[in-house]
Amino acid sequence: MPRDYDAVRSAKSMQDVGQHVFIPEHYCIEQSQELLDYITANPMCQVSCVHEGRVLSTAMPLIACRKDAGSYVGHMARRNPMADALSKGGEVLAVFSGPEAYVSPSWFTQRQTVPTWNYLSVQLRGEWEQLTRAEDIEAVMSDTVVHMEGLLAETSQHKAWNMQTVDPDLYAGLLHGIVAFRLKPSSLEGVKRLNQDKDIRDIDSIMRGLSASSQRHSREIVALMQTQYAEFLSSGNDA
Questions:
Q1: Which domain of life is it from (predicted)?
Q2: FRET label pair with 22: which of 93, 150, 169, 213, CA 20 to 30 Å apart?
Q3: How far apart (Å, rounded) are the C-alpha atoms in residues 103 and 162?
Q4: How many CB atoms lie within 10 A of CB 183?
Q5: Cβ neighbours of residue 50 under 8 Å, at least 6 residues apart?
Q6: Where are the domains of the chain?
Q7: Does the pTM of the predicted model rise above 0.70?
Q8: Tens-digit pLDDT profile for the chain (239 aa)?
Q9: Whole-angstrom Cα distance, residue 110 to residue 9?
Q10: Distance, CA of 92 to CA of 62 (rounded, Å)
C-alpha cells in the first residue's frame, strides 16, 4: 500500500460506478464481504416497493437465511399494507443506513470548501417471495431471534433468550399476526463517504472536529475514518 496519500487518491475518481445507486468511485465499497458483514451486524433496514403506482415502505430486519445461502428472510405485521401488496411477490429495495455526520467547512485547513456529509449506506435489491408454510414462518422467527441474541452476546454478558420460553398460545397468536418472506438479492451495492478525495491533513482535522462534535453518530464516523486511514495517520505523512 502506498505511503503517499496523493498516490492513493489519484487511483480513484469521481466517476459514478454504481449500478443502481449513485456512487462516485472514491466512495465505492468494493469488497462484497464488507457489504455482507455490514448487513449482518446492522440488519435493520427500510424496505420499499412500488405497487399500483404508489411507493410503499416499511422498516424491518433482514437476516441471512440458514436454509438458502445468499438469501435473506424477514417479517412484518400482516395488517401492514405492504404485506398484501407483495403477497404475490415482486422486486423490493432494502436500504441499510449506517452512521452519518455533517462535516463543517471550518474543519478544513488546506483549502476553502463548502459543507459536506460523511456516511455509510448499503442497498440491496431483490425478489420478494412470501412464505406460507408454518414451519418456514417459525424458522424465520427463530433465525431472527438467534441472530439478534447472538449479536448482543458478542458485546456484553448477555444471556441469550429463546423462543421456547414463550407461552404456546401467545406464540401462536404472534405467528398468526405476521407475514414472513424470503428475499433473493439481484444486486448489492454500498457507499462509504469518508473524505477519500481530501488531503490527509484535512482528514486529520475533520476527525478532530467530529470527535468534539455532539452529533449522534460522530464517534462512529471517526472510528470508520481511523480504520480507513490508519496507515497514513500513524505514519505522520504530510502528503
A1: Bacteria
A2: 213
A3: 42
A4: 21
A5: 56
A6: 5-234
A7: yes
A8: 333 445 345 446 777 777 888 888 889 998 899 999 999 999 999 999 999 999 999 999 999 998 888 999 999 999 999 999 999 899 999 999 999 999 999 999 988 899 999 999 999 999 999 999 999 999 999 999 999 999 998 878 888 888 888 899 999 999 999 999 999 999 999 999 999 989 999 999 999 999 999 999 999 999 999 999 987 776 554 43
A9: 16
A10: 12
Return the HEC string of 46-112: EEEEEECCEEEEEEEECEECCCCCCCEEEEEECCCHHHHHCCCCEEEEEEEEEEEEEECHHHCCCCC
Bridge partners of 44? 61
b (16+ CB within 10 A) / e for 67-83: eeeebbbbbbeeebebb
Cβ neighbours of residue 114 closer than 8 Å, sequence gap 6 or more: 105
Q: Which of 198, 187, 185 shows the shortest CA–CA distance to 27?
A: 198
Give the length of the chain. Answer: 239
Class for domain 5-234, per CATH? mainly beta
Query: What is the distance between the alpha carbons of residues 148 and 77, in angstroms, rounded to a whole number?
Result: 19
C-alpha cell at 87: 403477497
Cβ atoms of 58 and 73 closer than 8 Å: no
Helical segments of the chain, H only: 5-10, 32-41, 81-85, 134-155, 168-176, 200-211, 218-228, 230-235
Q: How far is CA 4 from the centre of its chain?
A: 31
